[in-house]
């Protein structure tokens, strides 16, 4: 059942229930207490309605999960929230290598992430992002990950049982759990005794009134409700963020416990770890039950009234917050592990939807990359290319729109996929373990006062500083220093590429500066892309060819776009004059 439809009918039911409840209370006070007995089955019916609603929505999600296995999932994604676990873990382990923001942006990895993302939970979204930004450097680690992904691909019963438990956990609209678990919890619990007492007072005074019909009890109830309202609003400002997390944290613990009971020997390492962690922190669920709101009730305002009367959230929060502090490290591990399981399930679904892919092979040879029929995963009906480079990097030339930048990204993305999810979109891939860094599209920083050239210089410096370290650096660069004059650009580019070649870097560089190929042909492999001209204009085959492209198509593009003949003819005359002078 669609969640919006379920919410609509639930709200209608609640309105009817409120009316019936008000009638029963009124009749009970005015005529006979026996009418109040009718509230008991009414309360039972309310709980049953929400139970059935939740079950129907879950069944709908489960059917969708089975039906859409292997298909793309379109939904809005908040990358600021999705990257939160990655940011926290990177801060804790700053000595490890991660894809930096420039590389992630250059390779359009947000779009690659969307393609792979079929996760079912908030921890899964975040774990998948972390996996894609954290290349591994040990083949056994990748094979271990691949074994679990293969299990999810091939064992339909296992993945559907696992999927059901993850669907029960589901996604949190605004997920603040990482902030709760990775930061110090600053909660003042001095108000806890007052909250306990004030939760009892209104209930006790109402019961006293029903028994004695003493109107003073109604007055006490009214005063208690006013005090509780003040307390609720005062505390709410401090703990709302935590309260919204604790309900979902409760569900995470339950999910970990449920998943640990799945019968599957190949999943034993995860089962045992989840079982141990969930047992250790399970006491939190007993004290956090009911914290957070039930969707659908909130929209009617009923929950707000009940929570204010009983100070329910406040008392439950104070009851479990110390336990959360105590088991904070265990909860972090539990959160990450459930996320990794969901992320691997997502990767399995992505693999099943691919027309073809291959598992990478890794070599101890430094600065080695070989790939056959390599394509970019984001491009439909992409033209494939093969490449074999060892020790030397690549200088790539070619005319505009011929495919240079796409090929750079194709190499970079596949190198990332090989060392994160253990596949490539190629028929064969063999390479060294690389650190991967790029400088493809640094932008002007107008607000920061940085020019395009300055941003390029910064982007290249970080690559230079990373080169020469423990692992070879795969550095992918599109047009070195395009933001400055030709003389300085060419000479600085030559020295940078020589430096990278000497410092354990495999550079893949696209350029329009033919002078680079002449000066560096002994240190770099030379390849190019080009186009053909026919009656319809320029035709690109997007095929990689060995050698250097000596032709230019910038003026041809102007002509193709119907620029005035005067501009085209005068430009060609100027170019001919410059070339003639160069020859002389």
How would you describe the overall organization of this protein?
A hairpin with a 2-residue loop joins strand 10 and strand 11 (537-540). Among the domains are: 1-67; 79-168 and 347-353, no CATH class; 361-552, P-loop containing nucleotide triphosphate hydrolases (Rossmann fold), CATH 3.40.50. The strands form three sheets. The chain has a six-stranded mixed beta sheet with strand order 6-7-8-4-9-12, with helices on both faces. It has a four-stranded mixed beta sheet with strand order 1-5-2-3, with helices on one face. Strands 10-11 form a two-stranded antiparallel sheet. 59% of the residues lie in helices and 10% in strands. Residues 293-301 have low confidence and may be disordered. It has 584 residues and is of the alpha/beta class. The chain has 23 helices and twelve strands. The relative contact order is 0.09.
Net shape: elongated
- Biggest β-sheet: count, sense, barrel? 6 strands, mixed
CATH architecture of the domain at 361-552: 3-Layer(aba) Sandwich
| Quantity of strands, as a count | 12
Helix content: 55-70%
Sheet with most strands: strand arrangement: 6-7-8-4-9-12
Do you know the CATH topology of the domain at 361-552?
A: Rossmann fold
The CATH homologous superfamily of the domain at 361-552 is named P-loop containing nucleotide triphosphate hydrolases
How many helices in DSSP terms?
23
